[in-house]
Amino acid sequence: MAGPLAGVKILDCTSVVLGPWAAQQLGDLGADVIKIESPEGDTTRQLGPRRNPDMAAFYLGCNRNKRSIILDLKKQDGRQALFDLAKDADVLMHNYRPEPAARLGVPYEVFEKINPRLIYLATYGYRAAGPMGPKAAYDDIIQAGSGLAMLQTVVAGAPRFLPTIVADKTSSNGVVSAVLAALYERERSGKGQSIEVPMFETLVSFVMVEHLYGETFMPAIETAGYRRLLNKERRPYPSKDGFFALLPYTDQHWREFCQLIGRDDIMADERFKSLASRLTNIEVVYATLAEICATRSNAEWVELLKTSNVPHGPVNTLEDLLVDEQLNATGFWQEFEHPSEGKIRVPGIPPKFSRTPASIRRLQPRLGEHSVEVLREAGFAEDRIQSMLASGATRDGNKPKAG
Questions:
Q1: Is pLDDT at 175 greater than 60 in this prediction?
Q2: Which stretches of 212-358 are assigned E, i.e. beta strand?
């Protein structure tokens, strides 16, 4: 069965992670995603271990369910090919900042004339209208600017970056939701539109969901920063033989937890009686949980809590995730035989649709693997394709590079 976005054609001119991972998610949902790459290819093709050139692990993580076509947009015939492909496309995504997009000759105004139904999405560091609009940005810069790095001082004693590209991936999810919303609106209006998804504003919005806190009110009635999270004791607790995640949260959780461990005295303590009182005394709460957690091994905690409603769980390593009982029981990890890369493992698609299931239909393409196929499919004459191949505006990735 086709996925929910079957029939949607997306031109993905993005690179690195933010745009490519968003486009992959849309491809997982059934869209026909055409990855448009420069002759050098997406930079992630070079990042991480690889069996073959241009097919590194980082690239494989963001580019399934796509076809790859090389277009040199600095050449007139390459740029014109993009315009022609856009004539019947539903979405065009890129991560050129406004000034480079204008210099390259690919601003929204050009595409609006070519295809008024086209959804044109640009994603980059900062909203173009602000003073930082022209600036380039990467995940580290956005983590720093959004306040996220400074939040780590609670546990690290100094600003630190999270060891995952949270700004890129959070913004990537913003791209997906924006595309879906625009496609839905177009069904009613019949019109496309231009969309801007900035990393900085997206991550500030993400961080300040809970951390705007007292500054929600004007004038402020307390400082910014959610107290439960801004606590160095909020962490997996040492157990007898490792670490364990333990979080009785609601009043019901606490009553059940205290009964299970035989500590009715805790619920008699005014500091633990309600969610509000526990928040006021959060340091004591966490210290108490740490003391309690140290009294049992991980296996003992799992056995004690396995039929309870008290939130708890293991502290997995990355390797643990590959053999995780939950993930394996639900078929999350999937294995494929890639035509050029051999046997590979990929994460599954988290959303489950009862009628239009998402699926992995295409494995990650080699650079320019579908250049000729896509151009022919779009109705390009054979002599035009050969001319583009000769000029370097495109390249057939199925043939060895010249020289």
A1: yes
A2: 237-238, 243-246, 312-314, 333-338, 342-347
